[in-house]
Design a protein that fits this description.
The structure is a single chain. Helix 4 packs parallel to helix 6. It contains 6 helices and no strands. The chain starts with a helix and ends in a 7-residue tail after the last helix. It is elongated, with a radius of gyration of 17 Å. It is mainly alpha-helical.
Length: about 150
Amino acid sequence: MGMILRAAMATAAFLAALLFAQHVLATTFQDYDDEGYALLSLDHYLQGGALYTEIFSQYGPFYFYAQEALFRLLQLPVNHDAGRLVTLIWWLLSAVLAGYFSYRVSSDIVLASAATLACARLAQVLAYEPGHPQQVILPILILACCACTSRGRG
């Protein structure tokens, strides 16, 4: 019974994070928006353009590799809807990793669920600039925190 309750709590935290992130992504638009620039750069890259000679970008190549992996894996067209979907995926991955990290450190599902929700709330800034490198960097940073916690070490 305890396992079912723990799974239900983790699932509820994930669903709340999903609904929150979807709502924020659907209702946020900044005046300085350059989402189209990021999508155009990515589209030209996915069509075989050479970074930094044929495609202008101030972002490093890892950003393009990570974005390419998701767009190709999910077979998404490069447009605003797909770009925001990819942002949503990175956002939720970050929240889940934060919950996992918290669980590994504390072994407390309530704290892990709270960490998932807190990360989903704090990552709201991803909606200000969808398709930009911070959406790739955030889960990598949290993954690094997870990698630093191995069983048997505090």
